[in-house]
Design brief:
About 5% of the residues have low confidence. The protein starts with 15 loop residues before the first helix and ends with a strand. The strands form 4 sheets. The chain has a 4-stranded mixed β-sheet. It is globular. Helix 12 packs across helix 14. About 50% of the residues lie in helices and about 10% in strands.
Amino acid sequence: MTVTGQRPQDFTFAAPETNACPYPFYAAAREQCPVYELPGGIGYLISRYDDVTEAVTDPDRFSSHRPRFGAGDPEFEAIEAQGYPQVPTLVTNDPPEHTRVKRLINRGFTPRSVTALEPTMHELVDELIDSFTADSISDSTADSTAATAAGGTVELMTAFAMPYPTRVTGRLLGVPVGDLGRFQQWADDIADSVSTYVSRERALECKRGIVEMQHYFAAQIEQRRGAPGEDLVSQLVAARVGGERPLDVAEILEVIRIFVAGGVESTASLIGSAMFLLLTHPDQLAEVRADFSLIPGMLEEALRMEAPVQFNPRIIEKTGVALHGVELPPGARVLLGWGPANRDPDRFGPDVDRFDIHRRGPQHLAFGHGPHFCIGASLARSAARIAFERLLTRLPVIALAEPAEDIRYHGAFVRRLERLPVRIG
């Protein structure tokens, strides 16, 4: 893609107007400043596919040992002191400790364990579809924010895309149905905690929410020690591999936090983006309706087009790094751009901004790369595949209820549709 007349400094990073469609900014950065220093001390954006994949596999130069959320701020530190320390486990860790943690938790995400959860996913999808299909919406619920019977419309993000992965993730963790509302709020708190544009008041609220979640799951951990079940918390408590030190409470809590962030927010983003892309490309929607074997490829293309997590931070920890003529000093913060790299024309061809469910090419980076490839990727893929199989089976009519230009994304780091109103039948 060729950029004409625009420079990366013409865009305000993380501003709502940039978040709505950041791809012209990414293209300008890729073409003109592949290592671009973002204003305001945010860090350096690395936007080319080859640079990103090389950096993510080089922890000696690009370390994951970044500061925890709110580190160094007395008010945030005071809130954190009421909970458990946020210790390095996966996303903020490097080998060999990262390798140890990943080995201990891998058993909870085997293909067999994901397959075993698929009947539950089918059940949860159908329960949610039952709750908003026109035939089941009574007069008493017609004024709900999720759906209205009068127009046969539903706001798909709040009625399905968010509650579905919340219930799947909650079921996997053994969360009672009555606690799912709190669980959803914690997922939102985690997502907002990495945002660059929430208010300080909201950031503090997020910190308090994360501490509340820690105490909730610390109690669950103690219960599982005496009465283990089949859930992931029990598996994390019991995990033993060779002579590796088992996970302690703080480590288990941090793994759960990461899993909630990925399991809920990322899957909700994928479902919303994939549906929006299909509804704005009716020819490809018709193809998928006619052949469900196209769903996995469609989801991969949606992930490439709209990566749920747009960046992954790194720290230049030991010695400076020179890249494309830019000197990155020790201590510099770097954003590895999953979103920008996924639209690199040098890897995906000149039509990178075109949605194509038949696209073939290199692996996108929406789930990361190398040692930090998302451990829950297979679960997210299965959950989304089943969601679309059931939605397209049970809803013969589904179309945007508002003009496409009125549907907006929000978030700089975690990218998700604000809302997705659709007509169903």
